[in-house]
Amino acid sequence: MSLHRPAICLGLALIALWCAGASSGAYAAFPEKPVRLIVPFAPGGGTDLISRALGAGMAQALGQPVVIENKPGAGTVIGMDAVAKGAPDGYAIVMATFAHAVNPSLVARLPYVNDKAFAPVSLIGRGPNVLVVRTDSSFRTVEDIIAAARAKPGTLTYASQGNGTSAHLAGEMLANLARIEMTHVPYRGAGPAMTDVMGGQVDMIFGTAAAVAPLIAAGKLRAVAVTSEAPSPALKGVPTIGATVPGYAVESWYGLYAPAATPPAVIAVLNAAAKAAASTPEFLQKAKQEGLTVTAGSPAELEAYVRGEEARWHKIVTENKIRLD
Asked: Are 90 and 261 in contact (CB under 8 A)?
């Protein structure tokens, strides 16, 4: 008889937790109650959808409910801060995104320090953003958008799920590299932002693949281009923005964090549960449909990746003189 690898990983993590708890007595039975997974965006966006899919699998692995709690606002700072200031016991974790790596370069006074306030759990996955417009829009190519922006500077609008998010910075980078002016319209989540794009109140959004894929498939939005360096296998025939604007590349990501000082044994259990959840056929199929490359690695891998992203975006924000609205 063979055991599924994620089950083995979770079993080993539980053994490690039991051994740690045998001496301390504090965490021997983790988790004894539901785990809260904070989503720093409003319901309905890509981060919310991915978090709910992952949370369902983690609940099965942990044997306790994983309750999704949406805390939108301030470019993810409100949700991230809630976990940063939470008890380091593993019962409150957060789904961090692109904004977590770029906020230190954009926000003058963050209420926490990234590398001191959080304990990494796992980098869940990475994927492109997609430049989308409403289906009856006259914009069919990146060239169309650049031409319109140059003809009437500042009149084109693009939505985002908040200041400092990948959708915001994707638009800022296009404006800087293509030397055009567009107006950024921030929302408190991807759901309301895309609603206004579909309704014609805003011209476009550089939405995460997870958020826009179902709407593209339903014919409610039309894909113009992807923000990644290479075309996305999930969006066949959709070109990259970089093919028109050399040097352009933006990537979204999803990573789980717990508060700093969370015991390593508890982190090990959460990491194993996240890996188990991310390897289920249901999650993998959803990730494939939405252009997400699943990684579900170690805490150290998440830490190294985010440090690299922080350094890369600090350079871009500084050189391009990107500022919050």
From this structure: no
